[in-house]
Design brief:
By secondary structure, this protein is α/β, with parallel strands linked by helices. The chain has one domain: Endonuclease/exonuclease/phosphatase (Deoxyribonuclease I, Chain A), CATH 3.60.10.10. Helix content is about 35%, strand content about 30%. The chain contains five helices and eight strands. A four-stranded mixed beta sheet has the order 1-2-4-3. Helix 4 packs parallel to helix 5. The longest helix is centred in the C-terminal third of the chain and has 21 residues. It is globular, with a radius of gyration of 17 Å.
C-alpha cells in the first residue's frame, strides 16, 4: 500500500523547485512568476520580506498561495541589506489543502493534503556552515530538531525538506553535514 501511495503522491505533485532569491523586487518577482509557471510548489529562501509583507508575493505573482516566515524583526530599523526568510509557494492549479505548522524564523512548513495523501513540506534557510561560529551550529541543530519534532507529532509517512542548507555534504569535517546526515538516517 505504501508503494501505491508514493506513486499517487508523485503523480499528484508536479515539479518542485527551490530558489534562493537573495531579495525581492520587480526582477525577482518576474523570475518567481516564471518559476511558478514551471512547477506546482516552490521552496523560496532569502526573500527579505517582513512578516507583514510576505503575502505581497501572492498578489504580485498571482494564482498562488504563499506560506512563509521572515527572519527580520518588524520593529527593527534596517541599516544595511535585509536578510533571511523562507516560504512555500503553492500553485492554485493543484487541488490541495495546506495546514501551516509553526516552526521558527529559519524554517516554515505544513501539511499538504491532496486527496487522501498527506505530505509534510518544509522550506529552510539554514545558518552558514562554519567551524569558527558555534552559534551557527546551534541554529542549524534547532531547525533540524524542530523539523524532527513536527514529524514525530504529525505521524505522516511522506516528507520533503527543501531550501538552502548552506552546507556541502562532501565536507566530512562539517558539523552541519553530520547533523543533516543524522536527521536523514532517523527518517530512513
Amino acid at each position: 500500500m505504501a508503494s501505491h501511495n508514493l506513486q499517487m503522491m508523485i503523480y499528484a505533485l508536479g515539479p518542485l523547485l527551490f530558489y534562493n532569491s537573495r531579495g525581492h523586487g520587480p526582477n525577482k518577482l518576474e523570475y518567481i512568476l516564471s518559476l511558478m509557471s514551471k512547477c506546482d510548489i516552490l521552496f523560496l529562501q532569502e526573500h527579505w520580506y517582513f512578516d507583514n509583507e510576505i503575502n505581497s508575493i501572492e498578489s504580485s505573482v498571482g494564482n498562488i498561495q504563499v506560506f512563509g516566515i521572515s527572519d527580520m524583526d518588524n520593529d527593527e530599523i534596517l541599516i544595511c541589506s535585509p536578510y533571511g526568510g523562507c516560504a512555500i509557494l503553492i500553485n492554485n492549479s493543484i487541488k490541495c489543502k495546506f495546514d501551516p505548522i509553526q516552526l521558527n524564523k529559519r524554517s516554515c512548513g505544513g501539511i499538504l493534503t491532496i486527496g487522501s495523501i498527506a505530505i509534510l513540506l518544509f522550506s529552510v534557510y539554514m545558518s552558514c556552515d562554519t567551524a569558527h561560529n558555534l552559534n551557527n551550529d546551534d541554529i542549524f541543530r534547532e531547525v533540524l530538531s524542530n523539523i524532527q519534532a513536527s514529524c514525530n507529532v504529525q505521524d505522516i509517512g511522506f516528507m520533503i525538506i527543501g531550501g538552502d542548507f548552506n552546507t556541502d555534504l562532501a565536507r566530512t569535517d562539517s558539523p552541519n553535514t553530520h547533523l543533516l546526515k543524522d536527521l536523514a538516517i532517523v527518517f530512513l
